[in-house]
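ok here's the first one, seq then struct tokens
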Amino acid sequence: MRRLSNTKLALLLVAVCVLLYLSMVGKILTFGF
């Protein structure tokens, strides 16, 4: 169970990082165009 919760936390962290990266890329694209 601990491993499962750890994997869930890792997936959550990855999802947050991806969302932040996408938001940054979106800002760069909007400012670029």
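and now the second one, same deal
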Amino acid sequence: MEEVRILRERIQEVELSKRRDIEYEEESEEEHPGELTVDIPPLEASKDILIKDITGTNFKPKMEVPLYEGSLKPEDLIDWINVMDKYFEYEKVENDKKVKFVVTRLKSHASL
């Protein structure tokens, strides 16, 4: 919760700073017409960029990966493999890390 509070404070600081910059540019344009001005991205886009920079994340939802306990039904194994393939594609997991991860998702008879 502390991180959320810090992020909110930082966002408020950025918003205030952007407002000051906009006010300064408006005053500057009135005093010096025809000068080059800088476009400021929309405030919502700035918030998203700031949050991503601070947290180092992309805010994509987490995908639940099921355990495989072994089954006599081949369809269960095929379904689980398909889910794992989708997970690896979604998370962009490197090939050398896939086997290590899959081992953590095997239980009971499947882990023998």
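notes on #2: The chain has a mean pLDDT of 75. The longest helix spans residues 2-31.
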